[in-house]
Amino acid sequence: MTTPLLELETITKTFTVKPTPFAPRRALRAVDGLSLRIGRGETLGLAGESGCGKSTVGRLIMGLLEPDGGTVRYQGTDLATASRDQRAAFRKDVQMIFQDPFSSLNPRMRVGDIIGEPLAIHGLVPREGRPKRVLELMEMVGLTAEQANRYPHEFSGGQRQRIGIARALAVSPKLIVADEPVSALDLSIQAQIINLLDELKRSLGLSYLFIAHDLSVVRHLSDRVAVMYLGRIVETGPRDEIFARCQHPYTEALLSAVPRLTPLAGTKRIILKGEPPTPLDPPPGCPFHPRCPYAEPVCAASAPLLEEKRPGHLAACHFSKKLFC
């Protein structure tokens, strides 16, 4: 088997929080035994409702948070035991595009300096050659040379996200973690940014972890899809397989909510009962069973394993055969 570019194995992350000012501190399990693999040149879409732990996964990969347990491997090397040079290579090879295109940019720096900063940090381009490289990067993402001396507040949201993309590309990364990069943008601008990311992937051979809650966006850009619920992966597989024959009720509900110009024959909107349970007090057994239309007593008693239902298609559900996606 080919070594994946990035691999997460049984990653856990718990935060200690106070639900109210006078309440005792409690443990919140944001990521619960999560495993993922991303191959070279592949886009993995990570989808799920807000609060399910998607952004925490991105920050764990980037080293912005430390996992409580599990292993993160980059090109087969465990980052926990990696040498200093291997860690430096990882920091160059793996970059992040943040959700908010304004707060992720330094408002006191000119755009040319923001994009050129990674070149200085990693020592990739001599000082005299940086302006030329910055202009190349700006052109690559659809910005002009005249905009290099402006500040972030002078740009629209879509333009600011292009600046963030150019900054991520500056060090010629192999993998980009895109944390809901279009959720704060208008629909027409979303399409432009998604098409730009797709074009960059093809021309530069990039891999992406594309984090989103909108499955229509995930479908357009991803090769494989992983669906996350309450800190766990509940289904993962090839994109077309997931959208044609999903094997988990939560995925089925998410797919039913995707807007369509012409509804498919025999399909209907699935309205889940109740609210997502809090990770402060997760339900026993399958975490989705309180909202699941197919749930039976075994679902509350036993948590299903993430196992292969079809070739390359895994789901954590006792009753996948009941689904008709």
Describe the 3D structure.
This protein is α/β, with parallel strands linked by helices. The protein has one domain: 3-Layer(aba) Sandwich (Rossmann fold), CATH 3.40.50.300. The protein has ten helices and twelve strands. An eight-stranded mixed beta sheet has the order 6-7-8-3-9-10-12-11, sandwiched between helices. The protein has a four-stranded antiparallel beta sheet with strand order 2-1-4-5, with helices on one face. β1 (6-17) and β2 form a beta hairpin. The protein is globular and about 70 Å long. The mean pLDDT is 90. GO terms for molecular function: ATP binding; ATP hydrolysis activity.
Give the CA-based shape: globular
Examine the coordinates and then state which fold CATH places here, giving the name of the CATH topology.
Answer: Rossmann fold
CATH class: Alpha Beta
Class based on secondary structure composition and strand pairing = alpha/beta
Task: Describe the largest sheet.
Answer: 8 strands, mixed
Low-pLDDT segments, ≥5 res = none
Radius of gyration: 21 Å
What string gives the helices and strands in order?
Answer: EEEHEEHEHHHEHEHEEHHHEE
Strand order of the largest sheet: 6-7-8-3-9-10-12-11
- Termini separation: 31 Å
Number of domains: 1
- What's the mean pLDDT score? 90
Distinct helical segment count: 10
- According to DSSP, the number of beta strands is 12
Residue share in helix = 25-40%
Q: Supply the CATH architecture.
A: 3-Layer(aba) Sandwich
Strand % is 15-25%
Query: What is the name of the CATH superfamily?
Result: P-loop containing nucleotide triphosphate hydrolases
